[in-house]
Automatic annotation (TrEMBL):
It comes from the Bacteria. Gene3D superfamilies: Winged helix-like DNA-binding domain superfamily/Winged helix DNA-binding domain. The lineage of its organism: Bacteria, Bacillati, Bacillota, Bacilli, Lactobacillales. This is Helix-turn-helix domain-containing protein. InterPro entries: HTH_11 (IPR013196), WH-like_DNA-bd_sf (IPR036388), WH_DNA-bd_sf (IPR036390). It comes from Ruoffia tabacinasalis.
Length: 48
C-alpha cells in the first residue's frame, strides 16, 4: 500500500474544501486562503 503525506499547501486546500463542501468555491478564493497563486491551486486540483 502506498502512503503519501500531504504537503502544507495540499493540507490547507483539503481542509478548506472540506469546510466548504456544500458550496462552490472558486479557485481564487482557495488561493487567497492558502496564500498561494490561483495557478498553484488549479494545478493541485487537477483530476486525472
Amino acid at each position: 500500500m502506498n502512503h503519501t503525506q500531504l504537503n502544507n499547501v495540499e493540507l490547507q486546500i483539503v481542509q478548506f474544501l472540506f469546510e466548504h463542501k456544500k458550496q462552490f468555491v472558486p479557485s481564487k478564493e482557495i488561493a487567497q486562503k492558502a496564500d498561494v497563486s490561483n495557478k498553484t491551486i488549479r494545478n493541485h486540483l487537477v483530476i486525472e
